[in-house]
């Protein structure tokens, strides 16, 4: 699936934090690839995963 790329999760994390000013303590991703993208972006934003925020990938079939 081309819409489950790590880069898209990174973009979603940036958009969420820009709009919501970090109002969550965890992110649930539809698969591990998206979870890795989210983790990469969160770490580049200076957040500790899982200390500041948890990220979980899931296997949806």
List key phrases describing it.
about 60 residues, mainly alpha, two-stranded parallel sheet, 2 helices, 2 strands, about 45% helix
Largest beta-sheet characterization: 2 strands, parallel
Q: pLDDT average, as an integer?
A: 88
Radius of gyration: 11 Å
Strand order of the largest sheet: 1-2
Strand segment tally: 2
Name the beta content range.
5-15%
Q: Please give the count of helices.
A: 2
Class from helix and strand fractions: mainly alpha
- Give the termini separation: 12 Å
Indicate the low-confidence ranges by residue numbers: none
> In percent, how helical is the residue content?
40-55%
H and E order: HEHE
Principal-axis shape equals: globular
Describe the 3D structure:
With 61 residues, this protein is mainly alpha-helical. Helices cover 46% and strands 10% of the residues. It has two helices and two strands; from the N terminus they run H-E-H-E. Strands 1-2 form a two-stranded parallel sheet. Strand 1, helix 2 (32-44) and strand 2 form a beta-alpha-beta unit. Helix 1 (6-20) crosses helix 2 (32-44). The longest helix has 15 residues, at 6-20. The mean pLDDT is 88.
């Amino acid at each position: 699936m081309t819409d489950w790329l790590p880069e898209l999760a990174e973009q979603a994390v940036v958009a969420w934090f820009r709009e919501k000013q970090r109002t969550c303590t965890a992110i649930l991703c539809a698969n591990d690839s998206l979870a890795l993208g989210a983790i990469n972006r969160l770490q580049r934003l200076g957040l500790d995963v899982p200390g500041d925020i948890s990220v979980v990938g899931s296997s949806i079939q």
